[in-house]
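Re-running the complex after MR caught last week's input typo. The corrected sequence lines follow. Everything else is unchanged.
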Amino acid sequence: MMITVDGREICAYPGETVLQAARREGIWIPSLCYSEATEPTSSCRLCMVELLEKNGRSKLVTSCSYPISDGLKISTESERLTKLRKTLLKLLYSQAPENPLILELMKRYDVEPEKKLKEKDGQCILCGLCVQVCKKLGSASLATVQRGTTKKVSTPYDTQAASCIGCASCATFCPTKCIEVTDTEEGRTIWNKKFEWVRCEKCGIIITTDKHYKASTDSDTALCSDCKKKAITDVFAETLGEE
Amino acid sequence: MEENKININDILNRYTPEQRHSLALLQEVQKAYGYISSNNLLAISSYLNVPVSEIFSIATFYKALSLTKKGRIIIKVCDGTACHIRGSINVLEEIKRTLHINEGETTPDGLFSIEIVNCVGSCAMAPVVICGEKYHGNVAMGKGAEIIEEAKKEAESNE
Amino acid sequence: MSREILVCCGTGCLANGSQAVVDEFRSASEGLDISVKPYIKKVGCNGFCENGPMVTILPDHITYYRVHPKDVEEIIQNLDKDPVERLLYKNEDGKPVRSRGENPFYVPQLKIALRNTGIVDPGEIDDYIERGGYEGLRKALAMSQEEVINEIEISGLRGRGGAGFPTGKKWRSCFEVPSDQKYMLCNGDEGDPGAFMDRSIMEGDPHSVLEGLAIGAYAIGASKGILYIRDEYGLALQQVQKAINEAKDRGFLGKNILNSSFEFDCEIVRGGGAFVCGESSALMSSIEGRVGEPRVKYIRSVEKGLFEKPTVLNNVETLANVSYILAHGGAEYAKLGTEGSKGTKVFSLVGKVNRTGLVELPMGATLRELVFHVGGGIPGNRPFKAVQTGGPSGGCIPERLMDLKIDFDSLKANGSMMGSGGVIVMDDTTCMVELARYYVKFLAEESCGKCTPCREGLRNMLDILTRICEGDGEMSDLDLLEELAFTASNASLCELGKTAANPVMSTLEHFRDEYEAHIVDKRCPAGVCTNLIEYRILPEKCKGCSLCAKNCPTNAITGELRKPYVIDKSLCIKCGNCKSKCKFDAIAVE
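Corrected-run output:
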């Protein structure tokens, strides 16, 4: 299918969203809560674009969730989009004032922080990526709690979740890096839960937490990926024999 | 009290173990015990095979559900628009002063809890206060304390 | 015809003790001869709740108000004589009126959605059938699905839940989607504070809704239906469930309905106390057993809705109109109303108005007619200030726009919207800034919290408005409010967020002077915002009766008997108790 973005015709595939098609073609649209690994939540609203309709009007849609159809006409910049992005950045800044991406975008759009916007604790922008990722991995230890202005992300009862395996995928996917992960020589603490490390039997480096390891493999031996590769090549060498 | 005699399994078995019954089950538990204990929350999660985190999310999202024990008699002060402009906040303040607690709190003897609710659909009789199951309409200044007195007497006579 | 005594048992009248009135009528008429014994009937909400319990005598068409059990004997004794005058409604001239046909509250009304409410016993399906119930369904089943949709399109019916989307168009889009399973849903999650029309219809005439639901299901090709009803509506939940059971027993639901091949079953799902669940995708999410968070609707629910199947969601009042339309014809319905908004609308007229309650008028009636003729004007003859229509998503209409003909488009064009039909009347003692703050606070708590512009926008708007009401505002706050409002209206994910700024923007447009008074003069002209007002006893009016002092919760009032009393400002919490007790109007709020 062919769609037009900012006057340029690009190729797009059924089942894709506008953002996916645009990114593939190198067209930049800002976003914060979008991730390739999860379903779009469309919660940060930064990726909004103008959808040009047949009657000459245009409406705002979030490109991360708008499905491709043949002949779509999109505009990634407009007066109202600029105005909206500026305010959205001010609001996002008030939630995550240390986030480098937000700060960079603010520079790009020439936005100063608005002092009257009340700051919140932590750096969470409630994009929900951590919740989705945790569920996708089968652990489902996180959820959004309450609603409205008091909404937050946590484990049930703000205590250790029985199902948490300490993989820290939530922290990896978090766009504002606001999930606290404390890694020491002994182990990891995340979401109020302590884990011990599983170390490589051969070289001794840390692989991952014990619970994560148990959940991801049936293997009795613990080998890091390098040592595992070496072990396999050793087997080949032995089997095929080097005279 | 009656509530201790209700078994959680009896409640669970009223519905097939499908995710779509999460809210209904939580409401039945709320009705039977006055709140949702962590044990019961876990029981619902296992019965429906829905992660604990999701049931917890639902339990904190909907205002009909409570994770903490409420008073035996819940006083709901309606702050819907019609009630609001007819002075519901003054009635609320009077009730708070009489019971010496804030909204969302329970009296130390466990008898009363105060809640603010958003429109109970009796707008023509604003301001409205629901004390337990009883509706009181056109609650003027001074009547708030009367309603509490009446409820106290009734509770004492029921014991 | 033998006599019937209809006693209103809607939530409002029940709260005022109408069950005891029913019991008293039953026991008092027990000893009467069978030829004169009246049939005591429990009916649904008549919409005039402040004047309940209401009792109507048929066929005499006498209606009594504020009936107490001890009035029952007198009523029975006077059944063949002149009516009991003290229980009749008195109009503006003080003249008692006998029947509803003479009561200025009811006279201008044209009841279609409320045609049976207050007349039928909601627990008796035969009552409903006798008044033409299920005729619409019978006629629909004799037509093709397309013909039924056509009839709704001819009627011009638009959704009564708030958005006003053309019902026929919605049904047609769903009808055109091929699927093995479709759902027909009823939105009974009436959450607009100040609105109770859906409650009355569900309590008082549940079959009209079920019939409408069945007709819709037939038209789109759905075999399953769900009525999502607000958790707080206990009586409505009961009555609708009873009606479903009765309808099933009689063959109006289930397999082979009315001997046709149409099969339709429905069940009730109870809400959990979340206003946002009135939004269609949030409602469906709630039914699916998840939190009520809306989703982007680029793929419409008529294509992929509940459980990913094609779904139609209609409001209670819309469905009550559907059953009427199929029974009497779409063209008949289209004779009423305006060009763009056909039919009637049930309004919930509440607030500072003499006659509060449910009012059903044809679209195109003016706000002035509604508030001053039907509503009888403002109590105490206080000056009218504005009406709020559309609830938290709507805006206020000031005096100069009161001749607006009420319909979907005219209200939208004037910065408000129809919404569910709530009309809140305000006088000079209502502070418009505090009202805006009230609505923003409501939405901040009810927002699902998923998207930034709504959640953070509302959080900050609430903070700004609270500061202004407390006397801590600055003129630049108004610019920030406008900026946040622009963002919420354009960038929010769902309609809750998109319309969240309407009350603020609308009050700012029509009552900017009040905002400026709060900010610049630190004064609340309406005398509401506690930080900006003071209670003072006027020495020239005070008789020294001490009533105020006796009722002051903080003992802030002191004085000697028969000499003017004084309020200690440092102790005064501005609760208003003294003012409400003073018989000499000697306490001023400034």
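None of the earlier attempt is carried over here. Residues 79-95 of chain A form the longest helix (17 residues). Residues 129-237 of chain A form one domain.
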